[in-house]
Predict the 3D structure of the following.
Amino acid sequence: MTARTLYDKLWDDHVVRAEQDGTALLYIDRHLVHEVTSPQAFEGLRLAGRKPWRTGSIVAVPDHNVPTTDRSQGITDPVAKIQVQTLDDNCKEFGLTEFDMSDIRQGIVHVIGPEQGATLPGMTVVCGDSHTSTHGAFGALAFGIGTSEVEHVLATQCLLQKKSKNMLVSVDGQVHEGITAKDIVLAIIGEIGTAGGTGYAIEFGGDAIRALSIEGRMTVCNMAIEAGARAGMVAVDDTTIDYVKGRPYAPEGETWEKAVAYWQTLVSDADARFDRVVRIDASTIKPQVTWGTSPEMVVAVDTCVPDPAAIDDAVKADGMRKALAYMGLQAGQAVHDIKVDKVFIGSCTNSRIEDLRAAAKVAEGRSVADNVKLAMVVPGSGLVKQQAESEGLDRIFIDAGFEWREPGCSMCLAMNADRLEPEERCASTSNRNFEGRQGQGGRTHLVSPAMAAAAAVHGHFVDVTEQG
Amino acid sequence: MQAFTQHRGIVAPMDRPNVDTDAIIPKQYLKSIKRSGFGPNAFDDWRYLDEGAPDIDNATRRINPDFILNQSPYDRSSILLARENFGCGSSREHAVWALTDFGFRAVIAPSFADIFFNNSFKNGLLPIVLDEKIVDAMFTVVAENPAVEFEIDLPAQTITAGSETYAFEVDEFRKHCMLNGLDDIALTLQHADDIKAYEQARQKTAPWLY
């Protein structure tokens, strides 16, 4: 039999029907749903007189719009309130599982899926959200879809897809102490660019990826989309299987044994062919900080903001100039000298318990710097929050002057009240530094949780591996 | 979905790479539970000088005169000429709805982000991928003659820009759906028996999924 990649195997196992032109009807095992990209899809179902094909495949949760402050008063923004209420109503009408705003299991959709074991190795997982690539960390084929496709999956349990090309990003060797999954993935994006993965499914491999916990792998796969790839994935190993065991949606007993036997086959064959291979030496990766308005505009913390004058490509140089102007930075300025106004620790990239532990370790016994107006920690789910509180992490953050919030997407995209004001500069553990992403005119620097906490206590960027 | 066969229209040049879906439609408008009405807020942060919100009347806002879509004749444009990686970032289909609601029928770029590309076809917005050199030439054509109209012929897969006509590629199935304005859910449901057969087989080999 021909040697296959992990992506080939996942693809092959889900083809319902293959057409002559290479399009396939692909079966979807898990459909995650949130309030922002689903209302028009449910409305479409109703208008066509259709019902969800398999209600058991769906897990819904409100996350983008929910307040991260006291929830006893509900949502004050009337437009957001209607959207969350619409999700609640749709789930009731169609009989779908929903972790609503009052449920301890509520949280960011890409945090709660894995947490509940609703994301399993070998699955196809979709959600009307580009960061669905996160779930690829389990050796699953997971990708974001638009609202029309949400409706298509609701109605048919399938998607019409063309197969992507295979890319292997191998992070070879080991990273230095204090270098995190976030630094690894930002370094990868810096290397291949935000369109480098367009048209590909990326498998992340190499010793440095194998050494990551499942949460670290989620951080890496989460940002595959920021490299242009709809899907990112990591092969199944013991780390994967140990994480899944015992979770509410995970199989048990004999079925568990059978599942594990299958999951262990979810690795690329030794001689599998990739259309493109990128190798990165893990030992060269330093703590990363983005300086511009695209995730590929990233540098090591101990360097300087780059100079567009040194770039030959006119379109690219012009993009850099626009980014520098928007960010209020000068070419050649040391990253260390960039002061921040706000700090955000959270998002589907970095709001899991290990992220909070890493940030708390830096914050412990220190205080948020005077020039930092707001430093906030937003756990990824109610259960992450509960775990953090049981470890006393909330006290560490509060004592240091951070705000300790309720779970949700929060200031990653600023749909709720958590946002930047024009020209405010933020050290953020989220995934996008686009213009206006965290609030109109806001300036975002993407970093790891430890780097964000260090920026909060120092008031500017520092190398956390040296001055943590 | 609105069918697409031939289209002739004014071409707005948007000369920057990596135009993301946050820029096409900012987050505050995603709270809507409708598919329509996003056009006045397409490129909101670039188009207006003050900040918008779903409950603010756009007619009362300060227009950014430097923004291309606020300038004549581009306020009437129906073809967007863009740079690489157009539509990157968030999967929000609202970005496509905003462009079609503004009046765009096609976007031309050297490359598109995958999710945006898919979403476009679902809504009768034709994304056309052309070689970077051709896109460069088109920017020049528009710069020299701002009111120039391009002609797109989907059945023939050609686009005429000034004195030149270029061929473009499009997936056969997607072309078929676009030409006829087809609902692809109905097409998939024609294979309902195949889907059920797949489920039955899979349930035996992977029962934990059901």
